Hints:
The complex is a heterodimer.
Chain A: H1 13-23, H2 25-48, H3 51-71, H4 74-78, H5 82-100, E1 120-121, E2 128-129, H6 136-145, H7 151-159, H8 164-171, H9 175-195
Antiparallel strand pairs in A: 1-2
Chain B: H1 9-17, E1 19-27, E2 30-37, E3 40-46, H2 50-61, E4 64-67, H3 73-82, H4 98-108, E5 116-117, H5 118-124, H6 131-139, E6 152-153, H7 166-175, H8 180-188, E7 193-196, E8 201-203, E9 219-222, H9 225-230, E10 234-235
Amino acid sequence: xxxxxxxxxxxxxxxxxxxxxxxxxxxxxxxxxxxxxxxxxxxxxxxxxxxxxxxxxxxxxxxxxxxxxxxxxxxxxxxxxxxxxxxxxxxxxxxxxxxxxxxxxxxxxxxxxxxxxxxxxxxxxxxxxxxxxxxxxxxxxxxxxxxxxxxxxxxxxxxxxxxxxxxxxxxxxxxxxxxxxxxxxxxxxxxxxxxxxx
Amino acid sequence: xxxxxxxxxxxxxxxxxxxxxxxxxxxxxxxxxxxxxxxxxxxxxxxxxxxxxxxxxxxxxxxxxxxxxxxxxxxxxxxxxxxxxxxxxxxxxxxxxxxxxxxxxxxxxxxxxxxxxxxxxxxxxxxxxxxxxxxxxxxxxxxxxxxxxxxxxxxxxxxxxxxxxxxxxxxxxxxxxxxxxxxxxxxxxxxxxxxxxxxxxxxxxxxxxxxxxxxxxxxxxxxxxxxxxxxxxxxxxxxxxxxx
Lengths: 198, 244
């Protein structure tokens, strides 16, 4: 599994890429793949709970992205919010893959009766998961078991560090819905990790 | 974030979208452009102008080619081979006819420091006499340098044609250790073969450095295979100077 927190992409990287794509999709496309392959493979792996298939599905994400880009007029490519657009493609593809092969276990969701472990650091700054190295594997299992309703928002927010606005755009859901899903996902994952961490 | 994607991750995506990539690489003739896709290197040309190369590529292969940002193992292998390292490079000769592919494979088997005549290649591919067709096939070699079509030369000691010009061909062969001055002298004297009494064999003048030795004791210039056989010499198994 990849690192839990990613350095956010430089803010102007997407604008530069979108500008290059507007000029010539073919010549700019390898830059898009290089800029996003790590994040997309990691996102897909989390969504599927399956590292082995993640690269194949991630390649499919880029192929679909390319075909869409070729069909867009230059103005649309220039205005593209590349990051949330790629995540939306990845989300759609993994949702299909998830439907084809749902996990064997009962999906994990947050139940208010669970104890509240101290994994969530809500002191100043954004919410972050505070995890020891040995909890990594446990975290991966927790995400793999997370309910399909919570998993995309949780992974995008807490693994891939997307903003709620970006997640809302990706999932085509209201920001409030997305925030609630990410939070419920966090509580469920926290409870699972805590319970299985001893 | 760690980058752990497999080495052909990007190349496989480009195969799916039908776009090939190229890179500039150093070679014995200076910088060349090397274009490749998932099944191997498919085009090599002297680097001059990117747009001209892309136009040649589109014309020849009917596919778009764009400058690459990263090497994959195919591009790295091509780069190493063009630097002179002995490595295997996957090649894609899909737009060549089967005859052309056989000719190119025969040329690929000619070792560094050697050259072979056009009619020798014709014989090797089972088409004796098809010397002109061999020349045409070599002229269409999509991957010069990686397939050393420059190692096929004229029987009369001249270097013959080359996609990058005769001077470049001669320069390459001499850099590889062939002494073309000596080869020309031997052929001008009317010798078709060089025999070695010690080895008990006879060779083409372009087999390694035999042309330089023709005046030395124990070596002899030979005007015909019959003359060689009369001296009790066997054909060299490396350059196979006569038909089996």
